[in-house]
Amino acid sequence: MRDLSNQEKHESSKLGKQVEALTSEVKTLRKDKERLSAEVTTLQEQQIDLQEQVRGQQGTISLLFHGIMLHRKTMCTYAHGKNVQS
To answer: pTM for this structure?
Structure first.
């Protein structure tokens, strides 16, 4: 009887330590999750900012391209007009 009681106490102590270890691990994992969630939010905000910057740059490039094409067309028209008058 006494051996059974000691064995149960030992098993109970062992299980208590396992519960403490698992509780500690859960706390650590929750903190990690919160930290990583915050990091994901920050990265998503940065992604949105970068996408807006890319769109802005694409708009600038498009305007420059159209300006260059208009300039070329004007120059070709001017050069063609000069040749015709010469």
So the answer is: 0.59
